[in-house]
Amino acid sequence: MSERFPMLTPQSMTPEQARIVESIAGTRGGNGARGPFNMWLRVPELADRMQKVGAYIRYEAALPQKLVEFAICITAREWNAAYEWYAHAILAKQEGLATAILQAVADRQRPTGMDAAETAIWEFCTELHAERGVTEPRFAAVRAIFGEAGVTELTATCGYYVAVAMTLNVAQVPLPDDGVPFAV
To answer: Is 87 found in the same domain as 21?
Structure first.
């Protein structure tokens, strides 16, 4: 698989693209044109708005970061977005999500040994992806633990990372040389 969008370089970017790449790098560190951004930068205003949503989810959301990463990994696996999985499984482990839980997600199995919050996230996200909505018990479980803001942030996390997964899949963003699809 080869990437469908040639990687933008500082020499090939417009001033607007360069400004947005600098902004992305400032919030995330490193190369601001990796992952979905290389494609999104073809529409600089879209790239700017998308990166701001992503930055909120990753760095400002009230949901615990471990659970945000868990939701992202569930979404990545649902969409077979290997690059998204590669990037976020590492972060999920760094945030303390058990390797066994990630392995179950990679294997498309229900994880065992989850605490109440992890169970609520798993059930909400998997039902949302499968059914395109959630039942009252799934909604109520997340609301009971995280409140209405938590339900809102979790839903937005899944939605944003579906957009990321779609972008990565359409652009055919390859894994880095050391990447193994859906490895833990």
So the answer is: no
Tokens of 18: 């360069």
Are residues 50 and 127 part of one domain? no
Handedness of CA 33, 37, 42, 48 (dihedral sign): negative
Answer for the pair 40, 46: CB distance below 8 angstroms, yes or no. Answer: yes
Mean pLDDT of 81-108: 97
What is the domain extent for residue 135? 65-171
Are residues 95 and 23 part of one domain?
A: no
Do residues 82 and 182 make contact, with C-beta atoms less than 8 angstroms apart? yes
CA-to-CA separations, 71 to 26, 58, 63, 139, in angstroms, rounded:
24, 11, 11, 15
Please say whether the beta carbons of 151 and 139 come within 8 A: yes
Which pLDDT value is given to residue 164? 98
Predicted structure pTM score: 0.94
Domain count, the chain: 2
